[in-house]
Amino acid sequence: EDAKRIVIVQDSSLPAAKKIKIRQSVANRDTRVKVSGWIHRLRSQKGLIFIVLRDGTGFLQCVLTGQLAKTYDALTFTLESSITIFGIVSALPQGKTAPDNHELTTDYFVLEGKAPGEQEAINSRISTDTSPSTLIDLRHLVIRGETASTVLKVRAATLRGFRKAFEQLGLLEVTPPCMVQTQVEGGSTLFEFNYYGEKAYLTQSSQLYLETCLPSLGDVFCIQESFRAEKSHTRRHLSEYTHVEAELGFLDFDELLTHIEELICQTIDNVLADSKTSELLRILNPTFEPPSRPFLRMKYAQAIDYLQKNDIRDPEGKPHEFGDDIAEAAERKMTDDIGRPIFLTHFPAELKAFYMKRSKVDNRVTESADLLMPGVGEVIGASMRISEPEELFRGYAREGIDPSPYYWFTDQRKYGTCEHGGYGLGLERFLAWMCDRYTIRDCCLYPRFTGRCTP
Ligand code: 4AD
User: Fold this and answer.
1) Would you give the end-to-end CA distance of the chain in angstroms?
2) Which residue of 13, 190, 218, 235 shows the fewest CB atoms closer than 10 Å?
3) What are the start-end ranges of the H helices in 169-252?
4) Residue 345, CB half-sphere, CA atoms under 13 Å: how many?
């Protein structure tokens, strides 16, 4: 009752407070500031109230003392309430710890939006024994947590890292459409929709459009959502994922693989060059080491030998044979055993898409490569593309594809064809490898997979 009567007004003799974000707090020590955010942690001790304030740009410890700590609002603070705090940030003496080794001594605060306590309190709804499916229902709250938000921050830095690496390597960014009328990676995973009465699909890959850009824009890349109606319910399949794709002209298979190594290593260097991100990545994956070049190159046929020799079997328990699709579990076992990035190359044509160029040395196989990473398996699918119209028509026929809607793709072979190749990287898989996450669902904002299209 007493607490309810304590009303604190802002002391008008204090200097005006400068509005800052938490990331600016180090640069604004020892002057009066105001900072808004959410109560991330809360603790009271001997009449003092300690708040760790979060605003997305960082964390700031704030302390309330004296009458301020006795107000009704302060005594009933709840986690996740939003608040604006006024005061002075000063370095902490040796032996005390807080984010950035400093603390804001509060002289005034405004409670902006009070979050519920008791059963509805955030820490009652989300705890270590909350089921994975409830955690996804509550993803909008889960992302306020330190681990989820750290992954999302590393994700943003990785996108920046890719864009910078592409620029360093001389590729131009384009934005292909998401609504299309052609398939790229097989009809069975197409999401179909009604487009003004016509049948259309959500894009599986922007590859075919990137190929059309080579003659006008040179080597190109895009970072675009791809959609797959996957039947497989695994920790590395999403229905919507961020696809980093590139296409390069006038190069051979070996040059393509070298380019991919450069892109991956340059991107990682760009990510690590930022000290804040590098620190976040260490929190998620303390033993992360950038891979060394060249990556191990292994032909599909050698992988089949490896699987046979090591008695790694297919999902039915049978030994692998040349021509088999190497299933996820076997691929991952092999990759984890080898323990470093592997380019798996020269897959049989029958296992791969209609557009892949065959090897001149062995006509059964294609100039294709998957990049496999420990912990996740395939993160990149790459290949040289068919450059001759006749070979392309045989590819359409083998996959039972009607060539007519692909006239614009075929035209690339007609109007000045060139040797070219490209690749697609699943951003969430790449992040799962880099950030050491068990499932790629943790590497996107709101995962979409079989049976899940919300929130
Ligand atoms: O191997 P994919 O199917 O290759 C293509 O789509 C090519 N057209 C890309 C190109 O050459 N431009 O897919 C490429 C990558 C995979 O290696 C994987 O990392 C990711 O996309 N990917 C998925 N990621 C999450 N969920 C799924 N359902 C995925 N399907 C593929």
Assistant:
1) 41
2) 13
3) 207-217
4) 19
- Residue 284: phi, psi to the nearest 5? -75, -40
CATH for 39 = 2.40.50.140
Residue bearing the CA closest to ligand 1, atom 4 = 381
Helices (H) and strands (E) in the chain, counts: 14, 17
Is the distance from the beta carbon of residue 40 to the nearest atom of ligand 1 less than 6 Å?
A: no
pTM for this predicted structure: 0.96
The answer to whether the CB of 185 is under 6 A from ligand 1 is: yes
In a domain, 452, yes or no: no
Same domain, 72 and 170: no
CATH number at residue 169: 3.30.930.10
Please indicate, yes or no, whether residues 346 and 268 belong to a single structural domain of this protein.
yes
φ and ψ of 187, to 5 deg: -70, -20
Atom of ligand 1 nearest to the CA of 355: 8
Q: Which residue has the tokens 């996959």?
A: 399
Residue-by-residue pLDDT tens, the chain, 455 positions? 555 667 788 999 999 999 999 999 999 999 999 999 999 999 999 999 999 999 999 999 999 999 999 999 999 999 999 999 999 999 999 999 999 999 999 999 999 999 999 999 999 999 999 999 999 999 999 999 999 999 999 999 999 999 999 999 999 999 999 999 999 998 899 999 999 999 999 999 999 999 999 999 999 999 999 999 998 789 999 999 999 999 999 999 999 999 999 999 999 999 999 999 999 999 999 999 999 999 999 999 999 999 999 999 999 999 999 999 998 899 999 999 999 999 999 999 999 999 999 999 999 999 999 999 999 999 999 999 999 999 999 999 999 999 999 999 999 999 999 999 999 999 999 999 999 999 999 999 999 999 999 99
Domain check: are 78 and 153 in the same one? no
Residue 126 lies in a domain: no
Place of tokens 């009704």: 72
Range of the domain at 95: 2-120
* In a shared domain, residues 269 and 403: yes
Tally the domains of the chain: 2
Question: Ligand 1 centre from 423 Cα, in Å?
Answer: 9
